[in-house]
User: Fold these one by one.
Assistant:
Number 1:
Amino acid sequence: MAAIPSFASPSPADESNTATPAFSPLYQQIKALILQSLQSGEWKPGEAIPSEMDLATRYRVSQGTVRKAIDELAASNLVVRRQGKGTFVATHAEQHVQFRFLKLVPDSGTPGSEGPAQREIIDCRRARATADVARALALRSGDAVLQARRVLSFAGVPTILEDIWLPAAPFKGLTAERLADYHGPMYALFETEFNMRMLRAEEKIRAESAIDGREQLLKIERGTPLLSVERIAYTYQNVPMELRRGYYRTDTHHYHNSLN
Amino acid sequence: MAAIPSFASPSPADESNTATPAFSPLYQQIKALILQSLQSGEWKPGEAIPSEMDLATRYRVSQGTVRKAIDELAASNLVVRRQGKGTFVATHAEQHVQFRFLKLVPDSGTPGSEGPAQREIIDCRRARATADVARALALRSGDAVLQARRVLSFAGVPTILEDIWLPAAPFKGLTAERLADYHGPMYALFETEFNMRMLRAEEKIRAESAIDGREQLLKIERGTPLLSVERIAYTYQNVPMELRRGYYRTDTHHYHNSLN
DNA sequence: CAGTGGTCTAGACCACACT
DNA sequence: GTGTGGTCTAGACCACTGC
């Protein structure tokens, strides 16, 4: 950095009305710079970023300052540190993070113990955003979206029904066919084909009855209670990039959450 | 510390069979020592712990090492740092952390916008642990437990029904009457009266139908889908100290979760 | 003002992975 | 051995709080 000695962009006009003097530590500025390089694709998912010493030289700060910046990026799962090897851009494509955002686990056994999930696309098409979808994705009503419906099965048992909406613009080139033929982890596809990384998500969870044909797709009785999970996934700058409405069977699985 | 230069308790006999050489950084050892003092009650919830410099002197390490230890304790919400004032033992008794473990929020408005919750104890008595309760609380079947049932209402609407089990031994002196008469946050009572701090919790969430009288207590129709939330709360050393089975209405509220 | 936590530096050394 | 992240130190200075 060298520049900006400890104070960041405090437009003097602002200070009169804001309570906070907008002090920003050096390591936060470095963090922002690294974030920029990540977003721009200078370092791609799975790749190593430059070593701490290299970055310290590049930004003209000490290694400790770079370190603290990377610490925070690692804490939010944007990068992964590996001692002796380097710091790597996090990815959804790796085996052990396949279902980073999926918190449904089998009642007995460990998360992956049922073997791989079977993904079946039921429906996939272009559509126009309804009011609620538009609000969730920060679009306008009627904007083009991609819509998909799929079923995830574990050990042959249909367990999850998902409706997915994506804004069409950032995923230009993604056809319904491409999605329908793809059977790997969806977030990995987004990363490799569209340079779109899902960084965090918010979920709203409710209990609902299985109706509107969902009972048939999950092969359960009409009216069975289902866990309804509405997820909005965000990319850089907290821009919403995916809306997902999931319906989970909870007779053999449960949603697991840890509270600190 | 001074002692134990970078290696902690590696009983040579152990090393033959364990894959990990059991290396423990100094700051982890300091963290463990601070943890001990917290658990022993040397510093009570709400109080300040000694300053970083004081602790550094006490343990004969540098301030930076103490700092890193406290950083981790703060990250797991065991202590709270306040610049210019000190580091304080976290507590459930403060206003803004009243419902630290409750993730049910109203569909519209902010978490606290409905005003204070009304707590009504429906039932409260001593009992013997059934097999499943015993397993959850690491007891034996038949061990003495305290059992309570209560309803939480927001803005006069009954929203949450909770069954709570506590091991009787650690809560010796807690009578059914005391619990029934108490109308504040339960975890605060545990802290002040029994020096029992709930540090983290695990939840298993399912969708279930309102039956077995739960529909009456929540004043909803029989068969309405409810969110079933089984929570086990842990104190120091990951010892389970409370089992709570909650039934949440999700027509006006939802369970909110953030994923990173 | 003194005391607290927060930032930043420079340098030394350790643990780990690859070659 | 070389290079990476991880630990630890000592000292300086900054920002916030309360006396």
Number 2:
Amino acid sequence: MIKRKPTHPGTVFLEDVMKPLHLTVTEAADMLGVSRKALSEFVNEKASLSPEMALRISKATNTSAESWMNMQQKLTLWKAYQKEPKNVTVFPFEVVI
Amino acid sequence: MIKRKPTHPGTVFLEDVMKPLHLTVTEAADMLGVSRKALSEFVNEKASLSPEMALRISKATNTSAESWMNMQQKLTLWKAYQKEPKNVTVFPFEVVI
DNA sequence: ACTCATTGTAAACTGTAACGTTACACGTGT
DNA sequence: ACACGTGTAACGTTACAGTTTACAATGAGT
């Protein structure tokens, strides 16, 4: 896995949702029902997208929670790949003739 | 979202990987490089699939970590859906003529 | 009947992470 | 000077995956 770091969902949310709608962090946080700190950290890539937050965003923007979760998952897996090795033994697949 | 509860990835791992290969929990845990307890709780749906565990499984079974993570994500989102409401205000989309 | 492997799980602990509240310092614009 | 919006530090809470250790139950083999 040598692909480059996937985009953080918070960045996408900031650039593609908040900015076009001219929403401040304070306003958006209130509408989402979370603290200003929680949203600020999210859009500044200091926190991951939680399932809770994904649901709130999907409701507020009428998008699918899955699409937001997928962005986070790609990033989470990418990060996990960075800290190999893992000392894993390959399972003994039976040889079927 | 009224779909039924998605299958836990641990159950799939147990039924479709461990059982066909006649692997015990103890053996599989050792090969994955995790504690017996960690794997036991996973296959008994007491713990979620962590990104770490997904990578270990993907290495041991030569499958994609994404596919395992996707199972967990569906389950995670399904669980999050169960505890609504969320008091979220829909964003003010500008009316473009 | 006894032994051994396997199992699930409790207990105690650690590390991490999201979230809340509160408070501060900074910048911008009126 | 003041009001806003901002990022973020400092606290505390809650949740959860992971570890090691230990125990009781089960099942298979001798």
